[in-house]
Design a protein that fits this description.
13 helices; alpha/beta; 334 residues; 52% helix
Length: 334
């Protein structure tokens, strides 16, 4: 028996204002039906997470946080002793929360993400131990802290119009350091993507890749010429990959300065010019937690702090203002 609505209700529903009011609701329902939340497709307990660069910094913190919520975590780094420490931290964290663990739930595998051989072996291990992978976190990388000409051995002074010429040895040194930064900030992420994109696509119901990048990749900064340009290249690499592989959710994280010893990885042995990052930088716990949330929610781009999204926009609208702030932050005078 057909149900007939009262004339006044029919008139109300058919009115343009009511129809427009239902558009956002219908869109939201369609979105949920077409692409349900990742947590419904990948349970947090048992999620298979690979973290490249998990021996220190944000990668190490993410490993522990993922372990605390019941994920299976593979910790990868070049330093075997340190990744074993992280493995033990993760196991203790699970025990403290009363979570049961199997021997293969927390893996610690030494490896260099710039080595194709290491990454292919790692992929084979994950296939054997876990039957695949759900989430890849690329947290490894290197820093560079000097102005480009300083890398080549030329120190410029504010107010002086003439700059000493670079020597052949200086030019070569700049090229060598740039190559080291490219290896750590571009080639490594490229090898990781080429190695694990097929495995993620083939074995996960909701594959995700998280690239821990840098705000410097989208807002240039003095003393960060080599670092910023190499981080920018990996950012664009993963953004293009996200178009080529729409079945995988790519999340690019661009934090400002983070507390910790990341600068110990500097390939140019440069000095830290800005204020003490351990006092003024973002907290690793907060960055790690926000990165995991972004992966869960399928966010495409994450600025930290969030206000930096507007700073990025302002750079294109009023570059001189942002450049002035950048010089001040890095104590740089041209």
């Amino acid at each position: 028996m057909a149900v007939t609505l009262p004339p006044i209700l029919q008139k109300w529903i058919s009115s343009p204002s009511v129809s427009l009011a239902f558009v956002p609701i219908l869109f939201a329902l369609y979105h949920l039906w077409a692409k349900p939340p990742r947590s419904l497709r990948i349970p947090k307990v048992g999620e298979r997470v690979l973290i490249l660069g998990a021996s220190s910094g944000v990668g190490r913190t993410m490993a522990r946080q993922y372990a605390e919520r019941g994920a299976r975590v593979c910790i990868v780094g070049r330093r075997a002793a340190q990744i074993r420490e992280v493995q033990e931290e993760c196991r203790q964290a699970r025990t403290a929360l009363g979570l049961k663990s199997q021997p293969d739930d927390i893996l610690a595998i030494p490896g260099d993400f710039t080595s194709a051989e290491d990454m292919v072996k790692l992929r084979q291990t994950l296939e054997t131990k876990w039957n695949g992978l759900d989430t890849l976190v690329v947290a490894a990388g290197v820093s560079a802290l000097q102005p480009l000409l300083a890398v080549a051995g030329v120190e410029t002074e504010a107010g002086k119009s003439k700059i000493p010429l670079t020597t052949k040895a200086g030019v070569q040194r700049a090229a060598d350091i740039a190559s080291a930064a490219i290896q750590g900030n571009y080639t490594g992420p490229l090898i990781a993507a080429v190695t694990f994109v097929p495995q993620l696509s083939n074995t996960s119901n909701a594959p995700s890749i998280v690239l821990i990048n840098s705000l410097a990749s989208v807002i240039p900064a003095p003393t960060r010429t080599i670092y910023a340009s190499t981080k920018s290249s990996s950012l664009l690499l993963y953004q293009a990959l996200s178009i080529e592989h729409p079945n995988i959710t790519f999340t690019s994280v661009m934090p400002s300065t983070i507390e910790g010893d990341f600068r110990a990885s500097a390939v140019d042995n440069g000095p830290v010019r800005e204020s003490n990052p351990n006092k003024h930088g973002l907290k690793r716990e907060d960055v790690a937690r926000r990165c995991i949330q972004a992966a869960d929610d399928g966010e495409k781009t994450l600025f930290m702090p969030g206000s930096m999204r507007y700073a990025h926009l302002l750079y294109w609208l009023w570059p001189a203002l942002i450049e002035r702030f950048a010089r001040k932050k890095y104590n740089f005078r041209a």
